C-alpha cells in the first residue's frame, strides 16, 4: 500500500466515524428541538416556535453526517491497524500532553493561586515536557531547565505586567 | 461625492495624531511578528488582541486590530520566502515563487516585491471599499427580514462551499455546528432558553470571542505542537528595495490580482488564502511566461501577494455594510466593533458615517506602516523566525486563557474556549474548515430570528422568501451553490460544458458555406 493510499484509508475511516457521530448528534438535536415547548399558552404562531431552526439544523446535520459516512464507506473495509497506529505516534502524544497541561492550568492552577504563579508553573512544565520529554532530539537537561525557567519567569511576568498593570485587564 | 471625499479626508486625518501613529506602529509590528511565526494566524492574533483594546477609545481600538490583521497577512510572506513555510495560510501561494527566488540568492528582491505588491493590493482593495461600501449600504437599506435570512444562509453556504476542504460536505457540517452553537441561550423572539441544560451561564449564549480564541488559538496550538520544526535561518545579501520598473512592469497583474482579491474578500467567510491562489492562477493563465511560475517568477509572487492583501480591504465591504464577515478575522472585528459600541450593517452610514471612512484611513495607515517596516526591518524578521516554537506555544496558551477570561471576567468563558479548542482541533485534524463555523456563530441569530419573524409577519406563508427580488436572487445563488456541490451533478455539468466546447471547436471550421462577416 502506498503512503497516499494509506493516508486516504485512515482519513476515510476517520470520516466514517465522524459521519456517524454527526448522524447521532443531528438526531439528538432534532429530538430535543422537536420536544422543545411550543409556547401554545402564549398564542404564538406555530412557525415561530423556538425549536424551528434547531430542528432544521439537526435534520441537516443528520443528512450531511450520513452522506459523509456513505462517501467514506469504502475506507472502512480492510485493516484498522494503521488507523489505530495514528494514535500511538509521538505527534499525538505531544498534542495530548499539551492539552493535558492546558487543562491542569485552567481547571486546577488558575484560581487556586495568583495568576502570575499559575502561568509561570504552566510555562515551565510545558517547555520541559515538549523540549525535554516528548522530543526526538533532546538538548542537555541543564539547557532545557534553564530555558524553561527563563521562559516562565520572563513571559509570566511580562504577561502579568502587560495585562494587569499596563492595560488594566483583570486576570483570572 | 464631495461629502464622501471630505469624510475620507477626515477619516485619514482622524488618526494622524501621536496616539494613532503610535498604535499603528506597535500593532503593525506585532502583526508582522504574528504573520512571520508559523502557527500564529491573523485570526488568532486579532482574537487575542481584542483583550488589550477594551480600555481604548473605539476608533483607536479598531485601528489597532486592523493594523494587526493587515500586518499578519503581510508578515506571512517573510517566512514563505525565506523558509518555504507559509507564516499564515494566506502566504502559501507566495512560497511557490518566493522561495525559489530566495534559493537563487534574490531573497531581498523577493521580500521587496512582496512588500510593494502587498501595499498595492491593499490600495486596490481600499479603492473598491471607498467606492462600493456606500453604494452597497444604500442597497442594503432596502433589505427586510426575508433578505437578511437569505443573506445569513448565503454566508454560511458560500463559506462552506469555498473554504477549501476536501469536500463541501465538511464545510456545510461546520457551518451547521456554528449555527447550532448560536442557538444556545435565550432566543430573541419569545425569550425562551434553548439548549442551556440548567446551566445559568449558558443563558446569555456562547460569546464569539472565547469561541474564536478556542477555535483559532488553542486548536492551532494543539495542531502545531505535534511537530517540532527544525530551526532554519537564511541570510539576505541582495537589495530589498525594488526599482519602480521591477514592480510596475507587471501593472496589469497587479490590477487584476487586486480586483480578484477584493472580490474574494467580498464573498463571506472566504479568506486571504483563496484570494492569493485565485490571483496566482489567473496571473499564470494570462502570463507571457507561464513556464516560469513555480520556479521563481516575480510575476507569480506579485500576483499572490497583491491578491491576499486585497482580500483584507475587500472583506471590510460586507463586514461594514451588511455585518456579514468577509473573512474569519473580520468576524472577530465585528465582535470587537459591537464591544466598542459600533454597529456594523446597513444603518452604519446613518448612525456613524464617519466610521466607514475611518476604516479606509486605518487600512491606508496600516499598509503604509507595512511598506516602511517591510522594506527596512529584514534582519529583525529573520530573528523572529528563529524563536523556538514550543516556548512560543506555551506563551500563546496563557494568552488564550487571558483573552477568553477578560471579556466578561468569568471562568465560564475559559471553559467555552477549552471546549471550542478541543472541538476545533479535532475538526482541523480531519480537514474540516473553520471559517464556516465562525460564520455560523456570527450569523446564527440573524438567520434564526429573521426566518421566524418573517414567518410570523406572514402568518406562516413562505412566499415572500421566494418572491421578493433580492430574496429570490439570494435564494437562487444558495440553491445553485448547493446543487453544484453534489458530485454527480457537477461532474455531469462539467462533461456537458466540455462536450459543448468540443462541438463548437469542431463545427467552427466546417461552416465555409455559411454567411461570412464582411471584411
UniProtKB/TrEMBL annotation, chain A:
Entry coiled-coil feature ranges: none
InterPro entries the record matches: DUF1468 (IPR009936)
Domain DUF1468: 17-172
Keywords: Membrane, Transmembrane, Transmembrane helix
Superkingdom as given in the UniProt entry: Bacteria
Transmembrane segments: 16-36, 48-70, 91-109, 115-134, 141-163
Protein name as it appears in the record: Tripartite tricarboxylate transporter TctB family protein
Organism, as annotated: Pelagibacterium luteolum
TrEMBL record, chain B:
UniProt KW keywords: Membrane, Transmembrane, Transmembrane helix
One matching Pfam family: TctA
InterPro entries (UniProt xref): DUF112_TM
Residue span(s) of domain DUF112: 23-439
Keyword Nucleotide-binding appears in the UniProt entry: no
Membrane-spanning segments: 24-50, 62-87, 107-132, 139-160, 320-339, 359-382, 394-412, 472-490
PANTHER family: TRICARBOXYLIC TRANSPORT PROTEIN
Descriptive protein name: Putative tricarboxylic transport membrane protein
Species, as recorded: Pelagibacterium luteolum
